[in-house]
Amino acid sequence: MTAKQLRAFIAVAQTLNFAQACERVHLSQSALSLNIKALEDSLGGRLFSRTTRHVRLTPEGEALLPLARRLMAEWDNVQDELRQRFTLRQGRVAIAAMPSFAGNLLPALLRDFRNRYPDINVTVNDVINEQVIEMVQDCYVELGIAFEPAPSISLHFTPLYLDRFVAVVPAESVLARLQVVGWQQLLEHPFISLQRPSAVRLMLEQHLREWKLTLPVAFESHQFWPQ
Q1: With contact defined as beta carbons under 8 Å apart, do 101 and 145 qualify?
Q2: Which secondary-structure segment (H or E) carries 70?
Q3: Could you tell me whether strands 143-145 and 120-126 are parallel, antiparallel, or unpaired per DSSP bridges?
Q4: pLDDT band at 1 (very low <50, low <70, confident <90, very high)
Q5: 117-131 burial code (b ≥16 CB/10 A, e <16)
Q6: Is 33 helix (H, G, I), strand (E, B) or coil?
Q7: Is 221:192 a contact under the CB 8 Å cutoff?
């Protein structure tokens, strides 16, 4: 039983006239008859009683008609929904983003996306870098915004922008009055750092190890929220 056969059956059942049904489904009379016969053969019996002057539905045809209408309505709905998804007129997308991106750059991007695609629902997962990678690997989200993953991780990565580290010090600190601050001067003071396995923490420690230096961490935090 095919969609084409059901459309042919519905057209004949509604018009009870093969010539009119041909016009509705854009088929020749022989093609229409072949579709009806193939449908009857697949179901095991006649759906129409035909004479030279009249076409009538058999009891089995009458039973099939509401079912066929419902099937074709659902078929059309599925086609329409998928077309709309492919043309970005409706659907859903889930993304994961690091807090530094989710709280700063992402809101403006989401506003622009919403203006362009108002019927696309977006779910944002505000998680640390490592969880972003895991959520993409587990197919929990379609897109993740994170630091570049290690080459051993089989993900497609596209650079969006370059970021830089800055030192934030109290206004009364002697470092605040300096134009340039080196690592040796910074490391004389206690650090507030992200907890391991934060990618930011690991990158800082890896950089310092190359200079045979260590990070003097006094306080650790799960996330930083600028005031």
Answers
A1: yes
A2: helix 59-86
A3: unpaired
A4: confident
A5: beebeeebeebbbbb
A6: helix
A7: yes
Instruction: Report helix, strand or coil for 74.
Output: helix
Sequence-separated (6 or more) residues with CB below 8 Å from residue 144: 95, 96, 97, 132, 133, 135, 136
Pairing verdict, β 217-221 and 191-194: parallel
pTM of the full structure:
0.52
pLDDT tens digits for 129-150? 888 998 999 888 999 999 888 7
Six-digit token pair at 196? Answer: 């391991």
Better pLDDT: 85 or 63: 63
Rounded mean pLDDT, 3-19: 93
Nearest to 164 by CA among 91, 100, 211, 68: 100
Structure tokens at 70: 């419902």
DSSP-derived letter for residue 13 is H
Q: How far is CA 82 from CA 8, 79, 91, 116, 140, in A?
A: 24, 5, 9, 19, 21
Q: Is the pLDDT of residue 92 over 60?
A: yes
Sign of CA dihedral 10, 15, 16, 17: negative
Residue with tokens 């709280």: 103
* DSSP letter assigned to residue 167: -
What is the distance between the alpha carbons of residues 203 and 199, in angstroms, rounded to a whole number? Answer: 6
- d(CA 58, CA 60) in angstroms, rounded, equals 5
